[in-house]
Amino acid sequence: MSDIHCPSCGSCGFPMESEDDFAGGNRDASYCSTCADSNGHLKPFDTVVALNADYFVRHQGIDLSAAVELARTLLQSMPAWAGKQSTLQ
Question: What is the pTM of this model?
C-alpha cells in the first residue's frame, strides 16, 4: 500500500489531483478551485452551495432542488462550513 494520498478540498471534499484542481493553481491551497478564489480564500457559502449543486445537476442528473439540498448538507458537514446556513431554496 502506498503512503501517498490525494489531498481533498476542506470545503467540499473534492479530490485535488492536478494543479488546476487547487485554488489559484497552488498545490498548498486548502480548497479547490470551485470553492475558493485565485488567492485561496473561500467564496461565500451560498455561492459554493450553488456551484456544487450545479455540479450535481450536470454530472449526476440530480433535480436542482435536490442538488441544492445535497450540496448544503455536504458542505455543512465539512470543517470549513460548520454552523453555516444557506439562504438558497
Answer: 0.85
